[in-house]
Specification:
- The chain is of the alpha+beta class and 377 residues long.
- The chain folds into 2 domains: 283 residues, Aminopeptidase; 76 residues, Beta Barrel (OB fold (Dihydrolipoamide Acetyltransferase, E2P)), CATH 2.40.50.100.
- The strands form 4 sheets. A 9-stranded mixed beta sheet has the order 1-2-4-3-7-11-9-10-12, with helices on both faces. Strands 8, 13, 15, 18 and 20 form a 5-stranded antiparallel beta sheet that branches. Strands 17-16-14-19 form a 4-stranded antiparallel beta sheet, with no helix packed on it.
- Helix 1 packs across helix 8, helix 3 crosses helix 4 and helix 3 packs parallel to helix 7.
- 43% of the residues are buried.
- The mean pLDDT is 96.
- Zinc ion binds next to loops.
- The site of zinc ion has 4 residues, from loops.
Length: 377
């Protein structure tokens, strides 16, 4: 049984203060698979924190039974900076206050750091290449010199996760169902996670979305494979963003069941010994992330919804209307918001007051949009 808890201090942002990331470790360092799990990188997204609260006792009990086969690293609160961002009674936590950076973007460009370290050292042996690249990734991240508290947070989280086999980043949307972002390059081999977690929508991504944490950790494998085409390099890290419904869905009932499902997944992937039980059927067979339609308010006003979370919609269908409370003209008092795709309503903004351009409704299209919006916000 190997269990430890440690505090990793961040660069101090002001004299007399210092934040830290708390890390729970299970299993022997270097054991495989290595699974990394974090919650609340967007610090106002708390269902994952409750999930981990329910998962930790399960992991501790498994460790006491000597069932931990791999290495499991758990960060219950990935963003202590954002956790302190309470302004006029409201918890913010999505963007850093200093420059407005999204906390889940801008992670280090690992492939650029690693490529020169492995050039001429790769072989025709896939397993050796993975070990070589992981060692180079650890070294490269260790050498990053953070210039701010935010950069030291990004470095700390990256260093904990960079050599993992599976990285699970727990988020939530505002009002939402349970959905997941998975890399197309690992689909459908990774579908057991979506099935076990009972994900109601599976969004398959490829390419880039601003070096979000999941992409920043897993895409380097694809980038290195593209750079060193004559050498076998698999996508050895599965980076996943799990959207645990809406912000108000931080509950014992929902998140304890999520924790049990995640524990079963860890068993199925042999990170923990024991019977994972029967794999539930997939609830969704995958939609392109580039089919996501952020239905934006065309005018300012108060949004009234026509569709519930989980409803199916058709292209051209009205999903909500914006009421202009001061319009003199009767026709201008209600402005429709229309879906651009056939698909499913997976989320709604929690605010009912909208400004032009606000994405009040999120429709996950069944097919890619011709002009997809980059998910960079
Ligand atoms: Zn988030």
């Amino acid at each position: 049984m190997t269990v430890s808890v440690e505090r990793l201090p961040l660069l101090s942002a002001s004299p007399g203060t210092q934040r830290a990331v708390t890390v729970h470790r299970f299993g022997a360092p270097g054991a495989r698979p290595k699974v990394y799990l974090q919650a609340a990188l967007h610090a106002n997204e708390l269902p994952g924190v409750v999930l981990i609260h329910h998962l930790l006792p399960r992991l501790e009990a498994a460790a006491a039974r000597d069932e931990i086969l791999g290495e499991i690293v758990v960060v219950p609160v990935a963003n202590p900076i954002g956790l302190g961002q309470v302004v006029q009674g409201k918890h913010l936590g999505r963007y850093e206050a200093m420059h407005g950076a999204n906390f889940n973007r801008g992670f280090p460009a690992i492939a650029d750091l690693v490529a020169p370290r492995i050039d001429n050292r790769l072989t025709d042996d896939k397993v050796r290449n993975v070990a070589l690249i992981r060692a180079a990734m650890r070294e490269a991240v260790a050498e990053i010199a953070p210039r701010s508290e935010l950069e030291s947070l990004r470095k700390t989280l990256t260093s904990l996760a960079v050599d993992a086999d599976i990285v699970l980043d727990l988020h939530c949307a505002e009002e939402s169902l349970l959905f997941i972002y998975l890399p197309l390059a690992r689909w459908p081999e990774c579908s057991d996670l979506a099935a076990q977690m009972r994900c109601q929508r599976v969004l398959l991504w490829e390419g880039h979305h601003g070096r979000a944490f999941d992409e920043g950790i897993s895409s380097p494998w694809l980038e290195l494979a593209a750079r060193f085409k004559d050498r076998p390099i698999p996508m050895a890290c599965l980076g996943v963003t799990l959207e645990l419904r809406g912000q108000l869905d931080a509950t014992d009932a929902l998140n304890a069941a999520d924790a049990e499902n995640l524990f079963r997944y860890l068993r199925r992937r042999q990170a923990i010994a024991g019977d994972p039980g029967v794999l539930p059927p997939l609830l969704d067979h995958g939609a392109p992330a580039t089919g996501t339609d952020w239905v934006r308010a065309p005018v300012a006003g108060v949004v009234v919804h026509r569709k519930a979370i989980g409803d199916r919609v058709r292209k051209g269908e009205i999903v909500a209307e914006v009421i202009d409370p001061v319009a003199g003209d009767g026709a201008a008092r209600r402005t429709p918001m229309v879906a651009r795709v056939d698909g499913m309503v997976i989320g709604r903004d929690i605010n009912r007051l909208v400004r032009p351009g606000d994405p009040a409704v999120v429709v996950s299209g069944d097919a890619a949009l011709e002009d997809p919006e980059p998910n960079v916000d």
